[in-house]
Amino acid sequence: MAQIINIQSREILNSNGMPTLEVEVFADNGAIGRASVPSGTSLGKYEAFELRDGDKERYAGKGVQNAIRHITDTLNEELNGANILDQRYIDSIMLELDGTENKLQLGANTTLAVSLAVAKTAAQTTGQPLYRYIGGINANLLPIPMMNLITGGTHSSNNLDIQEFMIMPIGAENFSEALRMEIEIFYQLQEVLQQHQYSTNRGIDGGFSPNLSSNEEALNLILEAVEKTNYRAGEEIFIAIDAAASHFFDSQKNKYCLSLENKEFSSDEMIDFWEKLTQKYPILSLEDALSEDDWQGWISITQKLGNKIQIVGDDLFATNILRLQKGINEKAANSVIIKPNQVGTLTETILAIQTAQTNSFGTIISFRSGETEDTTVSELAVALNTGLIKTGPPFGLNITKYNQLLRIEENLGDSARYPTKDFRIFK
């Protein structure tokens, strides 16, 4: 039995140049696991608490020295001697030490960094890749990559209200082909934008960030790029949208305010807007189409569109098992975004995915806009057969997630599978 003998932590930088945590867990058999945690920009209010120092004289208050002290002092002592293979026990100790519902004492970034590093040390101890250690012999489904092409909302300084316009290559034969298709479309879109004399500057997650005449124009530009690459929209390539509607919902007016369209919508009118858009374009996935507190609206849009496309909750669920269970019970959405740093431990992340899958919800594991070199989300996508992954445009640290999936696909060889048009969520 390998035991934890030491836990070390340091402050590193994420892809936005802001501090985040990196942790190393040492076992007495010589195994060492390293993990780091990302940070989000478009934050849902139900996400678990991210612990920052608040010292305005240092990194504008965003430092993580307090989290490091929690790790090197409290957690290092409490977890010393724990069986490195007992992930649930180790995570439960951290949850007990925190003692709050949303990690208000230790911080979800603190607990997640340790939790993931423990899993990596355990995988090394057993001589397995992380995806195989977590998922076992059934871990062989590569995910459909949902690549963001055009960025708006809080991820950009442009005039688009909608946050992400993505593509889904469900007509590919395998993951590597899917990735190639997306990158070809991405660079074709760059040419299309230049031809229309639009800016090819990029938002914080790497997507193109032009000022456009309407939100709908983004869809037209993407379809133009798809056509010029000779792929078939609606057959091989579909569109996915992350509206991040909580960020353009005005709680004072109780209206959804699309400033670019100069329109204000009630919840029902917002649903009508989305219905018309899905009738006009090959949209297969619609994320955060409504505010995180508009439960009745979510129920209505799922009744109206849920038998045709994915209705995806991110801010609505925040990888929180209680909120997810409520959504399942009330049939609000039919899919969920999974972000480990929204909840704070690997055990809770796995539980959220298993709960969703058991109840026929689609699962999409996702990166964050402030990323690190850590590729755990890629491993988890395969380990838990999520079938879908959001990893952003092909720039910066997003590339590490794609490259790890290419390695996993190669490692799996002939046993590697890829979701096809018959994959259950697309029926």
Query: Structural class given helices, strands, pairing?
Result: alpha/beta
Ranges where pLDDT stays below 50 over 5 or more residues in a row are: none
Please tally the β strands and state the result: 14
User: What is the CATH superfamily of the largest domain?
Assistant: Enolase-like C-terminal domain
Oligomer: single chain
Q: Strands of the largest sheet, in order across it?
A: 4-5-6-10-11-12-13-14
Walk me through what this model shows.
38% of the residues lie in helices and 17% in strands. By secondary structure, it is α/β, with parallel strands linked by helices. The strands form 3 sheets. Strands 4-5-6-10-11-12-13-14 form an 8-stranded mixed β-barrel, surrounded by 6 helices. The model has no long low-confidence stretch (mean pLDDT 94). The relative contact order is 0.15. The protein has 2 domains: 4-127, Enolase-like, domain 1, CATH 3.30.390.10; 136-426, Enolase-like C-terminal domain (TIM Barrel, Alpha-Beta Barrel).
Top keywords for this entry?
single chain; 427 residues; alpha/beta; Enolase-like, domain 1; TIM Barrel; 2 domains; 8-stranded mixed beta barrel; 3-stranded antiparallel beta sheet; 13 helices; 38% helix; globular
Could you outline the blueprint of secondary structure elements for this entry?
Layout lengths: L3 E10 L5 E9 L4 E5 L28 H15 L7 H12 L9 H19 L3 H6 L8 E8 L12 E5 L6 H21 L19 H14 L9 E5 L6 E2 L4 E4 L4 E3 L1 H14 L2 E5 L7 H11 L4 E4 L7 H10 L4 E4 L1 H4 L2 H13 L3 E5 L9 H8 L3 E4 L7 H15 L15
Helix pairs in contact: 1-3, 2-3, 5-6, 7-8, 9-11, 12-13
